[in-house]
Design brief:
heterodimer; A: 1045 residues; mainly beta; 22-stranded antiparallel barrel; 10 helices; 7% helix; B: 472 residues; mainly alpha; two-stranded antiparallel ribbon; 19 helices; 6 strands; globular
Chain lengths: 1045, 472
């Protein structure tokens, strides 16, 4: 009896003791690195549970655990460490850096791969910097961030498009921009910009819809090797964007709020002359009606009388001052004062939550941007949801949905049109104070009988309207509603074999209005047009994956899949080219007798694909990857619409294969690959068969035959690429270096080959072109200082691409675009995009020939330059000291030329500071003149400044306005401060960061006078390398606050 | 768990079921017609041809300014013989690819429809356009043109083109004589379907072509004898524009709608018409700021020029009639035919000699006065005495120059042919003489290199404005 009881008691005691031992206690400690320095935000997890904690800024943590629990300490870039909870309540951990740094990279089809296994060049851009910098257009944010990326921001207008090209242009007329993919869903990046050298509003490109707050990371897959898995659409590379998903594992939710305010001003404005005013001669000036009713008052040039010398003339504002003559003085800041400070405000909030079974993320972002040009704006609303769920052990599902609304009441118009106020500043009167026109409602009307009759007074009533009146009344509205989403299911048959299906959709409706009030110079009877565009793309994908270890040394992964793509586009345009009643902008208000015009188009296409890819790994240091894909594209003729393209790549981690101890090399990988990708180039739907088009006008419904000859035997284009490279990490990964060499050949490029019109048609579709891109990409990252609380790192990237148009199928040149007398062409033997125009006549030693003091133009058209850069690069310096971070980015594009019509006309019209020379004395041109006997002597004839400039600049000669377009820009500087965790302890705030960010702060080097050399009329192929009336690019400074709860 | 499996399988089936491959149908254009009735092409052939030759930068800056009907007080590089190459390229491209190509398609469609009348109309319009092209450029692709299997057509000589033009007009005449098929009135923007007028146009164009190419007197006389050419102003081939852009006369659209006030009257017109007491001057020219008719001579680079008096206010603009949006685009007028007949009679190519020449000239003058809405034709004609052949030659050609006011290219062509009236080349012109042809398009040298080089070699000064054409 007694024994039993004591036995029970002992057992009870043991249980009690056991229970005591099993009670949770608070464990605390410090996590530090191999040097004893604390690691902030390191993770401590109890093995087998979802309980975790993270270390604070001093590396300290606390966690509730039971004795016997195993704690896992981890930190990015370091090897995990485990420690078992014993009697002590203090457990410290010291982590060693993980020199193998097995990074995970997102590659084609959203598949995450170990960086080791990838045989081609992939560069990663983190999402962090994007949120603070808050670029209005995501494409601009990529400039300078990775080797080989060429970004050209068209202009400083709100809603300006940006063009991005990876590794050079690979097709002549087709799309040269990479495919954007967001979470595995292709995202349409079209711009529908109507902007050209003669006008039109530049519209934002589709990728700018992405909310930067949603971006986790961006992988840039350059070249066909990387993109072979996207088939036809990946021929120019792919930008794979992964969005943030909910991450917490313990069922809690966190909220993050970001608020940003940025202020913009023009980065560069032309240097105008301020010594001479309006007129074509300096005799006299008298304003009567601004349309040549007075003396020099209709002239839109500034070769007139001298300013600031005490002269007084009757000017446009004399009628507001009793009709008397007013001082003839300069207003040097008249153009600068015209611009407003652009203000962009953006706010976003994201809520994430997660648990064992899944995670969710909601985001809401709103941004409002007022442009630098008065009355221009762009607003955006982003709503996003992203979630993943485990439905049982084998089933996973996920969904991602975004709704984006982008709208504007008025987008600016660029190019050579008087809707662009910049034109009025080039064909201009330097003495006019343009801000005086702001209060147009209280100004009298322009004189009767002039072109501006009925509209508010302006300095010129012949070719221009009051600039503020134009911007406020003539509207170019934009409204885009976009839905992007996908839903997927994955079923794991076993831990080796799984199947995923995904359904995704990108669709949007875009409406635009173009309003021109009656009295507008180019539309005296007014104008109204409405555009409606509908786009949708559906992708249905099925992927089977098999991963296994064939043996101890060999691992294998195999995947097979299919994808069906369907894309539909339709547009409806209605135009009332003259209006009956003023101020009523509706198609019913068409002027009596005018014919309303309307157009509607449809275009549908399909691509069905089947693909397979896999990789074989040996000992985790040698990997062979292979892929094959077959596409059937509906735009190609039925007999040629199937094409297969393979790719193969090899990657060897030499540092794991060979003993490199002793050298400072931690990691050395050698990689190489070959691939072939197809493309449909410029070919769109319905380009195979001849059809007649109908057009209705006042004469009735008239038919006409097309000017392009169709070809029902076209074959797909192909891009074949080879690349090889190395990746090295040294000195405990403090130095990282990558180099890649690539060689890509584009063949059978589909071109509408121009024909002489004498054949009855001006072009015929053929597979005629061949182009090559060869280049080198280098990137170097160095952690220069890494100690205490201070880190200093530098990242450099540099790329050189040599592009050559090898052949145009026998043609000598293909015209891509042009303005005035200049043409942008593709010519065999030269890079894509040569500027062709006229030079001056020159003697044998290259001196310009003058006749009667004026330069003589050689009427023969020649290649005067090309727009392809010699090399591009970027450098970013990042510093971190305690909670303060400072990062700067400088990017450079060196080489290439551009044609500036602002310079040509600015000199012709006498408004630029170069035209001051010789106004009183005349100019002796620097060159030679005929000696009358077949030879040349130095030119001694004095020519008046106006005649000299008008002979040497303008639309009669191009060479004098072509400049080297190299530039180096201070792209961004960002200074941030994260509040220390010690301050936040006890508050509900888990993270607080403040930052001051400047973008496009300075042009450190440029050879182009008066304008920003980074320019284009839109993101289209033919609109590059040319400029007129550039709406200045923006220098912006902003403040960003980011709080997490 | 079972439910999720079912959902998954359903989803999978959705995936598989959606892969179709009816690509042929997908790639069929739902927005454009693969067939049209032949007559629907007729409207554009006429409209585009007229728009091209009346374009203010073509027919105006080059035609009217070089023929010295018009003059400019600013932006006058073109008038000083530095033409815009882009405009010249556009004339070639539009006439070949939009006018001739469509005319040929219409001919072929009409042939399958069995509509010989429409085939004839196509031939007449093709002949007219080919003649315009060769008058402007010289040797042009003709025999090898419009052939889908020839991508680099060789150039035919101007003589060959004229011979071909006359042959087309003969063929058209034959087709119309026994013609079947309707010329749909709504598509026929010249004659609203009246076949008899097309016959007259064909014959009148043939007369002009023969006169221009020094054609045989026998053929000319045959046309006169047959009597199937224009008989009155009602027969003139005029394309009537509407009152509003973009379907108004291109001259109105540029000068009035586009606010290009720099186009003015040339002093040559003012001087010559004043000298002849020609009342048409009041229709051709408007009043300047002072209420007078003052013209400006061609040329001068420093414009506007207060000192010389060449300013917007001082020089007369064009007359209201010629700035009217509904001013017709003339292909060939009855007045021109009569004046050509006068010249033919004077040269002895048709019967009647100088007396007939006088009669024909008077009829032409009367017709043109009528077109301009001016009275007193008879009295005016009475003051123009044809003394002898040489004197008549000059006077008739001067009347032609006056009557063709507004028809830039045609005036310039006729002036190049006859040399009358005597005109002084533009002051400060880029070349010392009035141009005698247009440059070939800038694209020909790269798109059709061999043929271009061969043609260039046949021109006496290469591909320049100063090379002369065979009928000069």
């Amino acid at each position: 009896m007694k024994t039993k009881f004591s036995g029970i008691l002992t057992l009870l005691l043991a249980f009690v003791v056991q229970f005591t031992f099993a009670q949770e206690k608070t464990i605390s400690g410090t996590v530090s690195d191999e040097n004893g320095l604390p690691l902030p935000t390191a993770t401590v997890i109890i093995q087998g549970t979802t309980t975790g904690a993270s270390t604070d800024f001093d590396g300290n943590y606390t966690i509730n655990a039971k004795q016997g629990d195993v704690l896992i300490f981890s930190y990015v870039g370091y090897s995990n460490q485990t420690k078992t909870v014993g009697a002590s309540n203090k457990i410290d951990a010291s982590l060693e850096p993980d020199n193998t740094l097995d990074e995970v990279v997102v590659t084609a089809l959203g598949i995450k791969k170990s960086e080791k296994a990838i045989g081609y060049s992939v560069q990663k851009v983190s999402g962090e910097g994007l949120t603070e910098a808050r670029e209005g257009n995501l494409v601009n944010a990529l400039s300078g961030k990775a080797a080989g990326i060429q970004v050209t921001n068209s202009s400083g207008s709100v809603g300006a498009s940006s063009r991005i090209v990876l590794r050079g242009n690979s097709t002549i007329t087709g799309n040269n921009q990479p495919l954007f993919v967001v979470d595995g869903v292709p995202l349409d990046n079209s711009s529908y910009s109507g902007a050209t050298s003669t006008g039109g509003a530049d519209l934002p490109n589709g990728a700018s819809d992405i909310n930067p707050d949603d971006i986790e990371s961006i992988s840039v897959l350059k070249g066909p090797n990387a993109a072979a898995l996207y088939g036809v659409r990946g021929a120019n590379g792919v930008i794979v964007i992964t969005t943030k998903s909910g991450s917490s594992k313990d069922g809690s939710f966190s909220v993050s709020v970001n608020s940003n305010a940025s202020f913009s001003n023009p980065l560069k404005l032309p240097s105008y002359q301020n010594s001479y005013g309006q007129g074509s001669d300096n005799s006299y000036f008298e304003f009567v009606d601004g349309a040549n009713g007075g003396i020099n008052d209709g002239v839109d040039e500034s070769w007139g009388p001298a300013l600031d010398t005490g002269l007084e003339f009757i000017q446009w504002d004399s009628q507001l001052n009793g009709g008397q003559a007013l001082p003839w003085v300069s207003h040097p800041d008249n153009v600068k004062d015209f611009f407003d400070t652009g203000v962009a405000l953006s706010n976003s909030i994201t809520v994430t939550s997660g648990g064992e079974k899944g995670s969710m993320r909601f985001s809401l972002g709103k941004s409002e941007q007022d442009g630098m040009l008065p009355f221009t704006e762009l607003n955006r609303l982003n709503l996003g949801f992203n979630g993943k769920m485990d439905l049982g052990k084998k089933f996973h599902a996920g969904m991602s949905v975004s709704y984006i609304n982008t709208e504007s009441d008025n987008l600016p118009i660029g190019g050579y049109t008087n809707e662009n106020p910049m034109q009025q500043f080039i064909w201009s009167a330097r003495q006019v104070n343009f801000s005086d026109f702001k209060d147009w409602r209280n100004l009298p009307l322009a004189a009767a009988g002039t072109a501006a009759e009925g509209t508010p007074l302006n300095w010129n009533a012949n070719f221009q309207n009051n600039p503020y009146w134009v911007l406020e009344n003539n509207r170019n509205t934009f409204d885009k509603n976009r839905f992007v989403g996908n839903i997927f299911f994955t079923y794991d048959f076993s831990d080796k074999f799984s199947i995923t299906t995904k359904y995704s959709r990108d669709q949007y409706t875009q409406s635009e209005k173009r309003i021109k009030a009656q009295g507008s110079n180019e539309n005296p009877d007014g104008y109204y047009a409405e555009f409606k565009r509908d786009y949708d793309e559906t992708n249905i994908e099925l992927l089977l994956s098999y991963n296994t270890d064939l043996s101890e040394s060999f691992s294998l992964s195999l995947n097979a899949g299919t994808n069906g793509m369907k894309r539909n586009y339709s547009s409806l345009i209605g135009e009332a080219t003259q209006l009956e009643l003023p101020g009523l902008y509706n198609l019913s208000n068409i002027k009596t007798g005018a014919t309303p015009t309307y157009f509607n188009t449809t275009s549908n296409r399909r691509i069905n694909s089947v693909y397979g890819f896999g990789s074989l790994g040996y000992n985790d240091y040698l990997f062979l990857e292979f892929s094959g894909r077959n596409d059937w594209a509906s735009v190609l003729p039925v007999q040629n619409n199937s094409f297969f393209y393979p790719s193969v790549s090899l990657s060897a981690i030499v540092s794991d294969m060979v003993d490199l101890d002793g050298s400072k090399i931690d990691y050395l990988k050698v990689r190489g690959g070959w691939s072939k990708v197809g493309s449909t180039g410029a070919l769109g739907p319905y380009n195979l068969n001849q059809t007649y088009s109908l057009a209705n006008n006042a004469f009735g419904n008239l038919a006409s035959t097309p000017n392009t000859r169709f070809n029902d035997d076209l074959t797909p284009e192909s891009v074949t690429g080879f690349e090889a490279g190395i990746d090295v990490r040294m000195f405990k990964s403090r130095i990282k270096f990558s180099a890649t060499y690539y060689d890509q050949l584009s063949e059978d490029l589909i071109l509408p080959i121009q024909l002489t019109a004498a054949t009855g048609q001006t072009s015929a579709w053929k597979n005629a072109g061949e182009m090559s891109n060869k280049g080198i990409e280098l990137s170097l990252g160095a952690t220069i200082v890494q100690n205490d609380n201070f880190n200093l790192g530098v990242d450099l990237n540099w790329a050189k691409n040599e592009n050559e148009v090898i052949s145009l199928g026998g043609l000598d040149s293909y015209i891509l675009g042009g303005q005035w007398g200049a043409r942008l062409e593709a010519r065999p033997g030269l890079p894509y995009g040569v500027l062709v125009g006229r030079d001056f006549e020159r003697d044998d030693s290259g001196q310009v020939i003058y006749q009667n003091g004026l330069a003589v133009v050689d009427s023969e058209y020649k290649v005067l330059g090309d727009i392809a850069p010699d090399w591009t690069g970027g450098m970013s310096i990042n510093m971190e000291y305690k909670g303060i971070t400072l990062s700067t980015l400088v990017d450079a594009k060196i080489g290439g030329e551009l044609h500036s019509m602002s310079y040509a006309w600015g000199r012709y019209a006498g408004v630029l500071d170069e035209t001051l020379e010789g106004r009183e004395t005349g100019i002796v041109g620097n060159g030679v003149m005929s000696d009358g006997a077949g030879g040349y002597v130095p030119n001694t004839v004095v020519a008046p400044a106006k005649a000299f400039n008008q002979a040497a600049f303008g639309n009669g000669v191009e060479e004098s306005s072509i400049f080297d377009a190299s530039y180096v820009k201070l792209r961004s500087v960002s200074l941030g401060y994260s509040l220390p965790q010690s301050l936040l302890k006890g508050t509900f705030i888990t993270n607080a960061k403040f930052a001051v960010v400047g973008r496009n702060l300075a042009i450190l080097y440029s050879n182009v006078p008066h304008i920003d050399p980074e320019t284009g009329f839109s993101s289209a192929n033919g609109q590059q390398g040319q400029e007129f009336g550039q709406i200045p690019s923006a220098r912006s400074i902003g403040f960003n606050v980011n709080l997490s709860f | 768990m079972k439910n999720t499996k079912i959902i998954f399988l359903l989803f999978l089936s959705l995936v598989i079921a959606s892969c179709d491959s009816d690509f042929g149908e997908v790639n069929t254009d739902p927005d454009n017609a693969t067939e049209v009735p032949a007559h629907l092409l007729l409207g554009n052939i006429i409209r585009i041809n007229q728009n091209v030759i009346y374009n203010a930068q073509g027919g105006g800056d080059m035609g009217e300014c070089w023929a010295q009907h018009w003059s400019k007080v600013q932006y006058n590089d073109e008038a000083r013989y530095i033409p815009r190459r882009g405009v010249i390229d556009g004339i070639w491209n539009n006439l070949y690819a939009d006018v001739l190509s469509d005319a040929k398609s219409m001919y072929e469609l009409a042939e399958t429809e069995g509509n010989t009348n429409l085939q004839a109309v196509s031939l007449i319009l093709q002949a007219n356009t080919f003649q315009i092209l060769t008058d402007l450029y010289g040797p042009i692709p003709f025999a090898e043109a419009l052939n889908p299997s020839i991508e680099q057509p060789a150039y035919s000589t101007s003589e060959e083109v004229y011979a071909g033009v006359i042959a087309m007009l003969d063929q058209a005449d034959a087709l119309l004589a026994s013609g079947t098929g309707e010329i749909t009135a709504t598509s026929d923007l010249l004659y609203a379907g009246d076949v008899s007028k097309w016959v007259k146009l064909g014959n009148s164009l043939k007369f002009k072509a023969l006169m221009r190419s020094n054609g045989s007197a026998a053929e000319l006389q045959a046309l006169v004898t047959e009597g199937a050419m224009f008989a009155s102003n009602a027969d003139s081939a005029e394309f009537v524009y509407t009152a509003l852009a973009p379907d108004a006369n291109p001259i109105y659209e540029t000068i009035v709608d586009g606010n290009r006030a720099e186009y003015k009257i040339n002093s040559a017109v003012v001087d010559i018409l004043t000298g002849l007491n020609d009342p048409r001057l009041d229709v051709y020219a408007g009043l300047n700021a002072d209420g007078n008719i003052v013209g400006k001579p061609s040329g001068y680079s420093n414009l506007p020029n207060e000192a010389l008096g060449y300013t917007y206010g001082n020089i007369s603009p064009l007359g209201d009639k010629y700035l009217d949006p509904t001013l017709p685009g003339v292909i060939m007028s009855y007045a021109q035919l009569k004046l050509l007949m006068a010249e033919a009679a004077n040269e002895g190519k048709i019967a009647g000699g100088i007396t007939a020449a006088k009669t024909y000239m008077d009829e032409g003058i009367a017709a043109n006065f009528d077109f301009n809405g001016v009275a007193g034709a008879a009295g005016y004609a009475a003051t123009i005495n044809l003394l002898n052949q040489a004197n008549a030659r000059e006077k008739i050609a001067t009347q032609v120059w006056i009557a063709l006011f507004g028809q830039g290219f045609e005036t310039w062509t006729e002036w190049r042919r006859t040399g009358f009236p005597a005109l002084t080349p533009a002051i400060e012109g880029a070349i010392p003489t009035i141009p005698t042809r247009l440059y070939y398009p800038t694209t020909e040298v790269s798109l059709n290199q061999e043929s271009y080089n061969a043609a260039k070699a046949t021109l006496n000064n290469g591909d320049e404005l100063t090379s002369t054409l065979f009928w000069q």
